[in-house]
Amino acid sequence: AARDLINQKWRPPLHLLSHPALQTTKPTMSANRIEYSEKYADEENEYRHVILPKELAKTLPKNRLLSESEWRGIGVQQSRGWQHYAIHRPEPHILLFRRPLGTDPQSGQVNPELKRQALEEYKGQFGIRK
């Protein structure tokens, strides 16, 4: 069953078909050119950035953050819980995402035990004692 899902062609939800980015580009073509950073963290959140093809980025709203349905609609694929939280004006084709430490990637909800483990790992990487 999972193999069937992987082999299916991605189609945006019907409510996203009016998005300008979907009208001017083919999500499957652009999605192949989206790049994802490794995750990095501080004591409260984990972060990552996503680099869009510049021609796709030009079609997005300029002065506001994207909702989850919007960034998923243009082909960004991430586990649950990520939030587009900032616009880097010099490079608007780079989307900045964050989610709280300990977020369960399947539910998108913070799990206290995962949060404790992630905070321990973060402190261990930097030699921070309790």
Please characterize this protein's 3D structure.
By secondary structure, the chain is an alpha+beta fold. 31% of the residues lie in helices and 18% in strands. It has 6 helices and 5 strands; from the N terminus they run H-H-H-E-E-E-H-H-E-E-H. The chain has helices spanning 2-7, 20-24, 27-31, 54-57, 68-73, 112-125; strands spanning 35-36, 40-41, 45-51, 83-87, 94-100. Strands 1, 2, 3, 4 and 5 form a 5-stranded antiparallel beta sheet that branches. Strand 4 (83-87) and strand 5 form a beta hairpin. The longest helix has 14 residues, at 112-125. The chain is elongated, with a radius of gyration of 17 Å. The model is unreliable at 2-28 (pLDDT under 50).
What's the topology here?
Elements: H1 2-7, H2 20-24, H3 27-31, E1 35-36, E2 40-41, E3 45-51, H4 54-57, H5 68-73, E4 83-87, E5 94-100, H6 112-125
Antiparallel strand pairs: 1-3, 2-3, 3-5, 4-5
Strand content: 15-25%
Q: Which radius of gyration do the C-alpha atoms yield?
A: 17 Å
Structural class: alpha+beta
How much helicity do the residues have? 25-40%
The total of beta strands comes to: 5
Q: Residue-averaged pLDDT, rounded?
A: 82
Main beta sheet strand tally, sense and closure: 5 strands, antiparallel
Mass-distribution shape: elongated
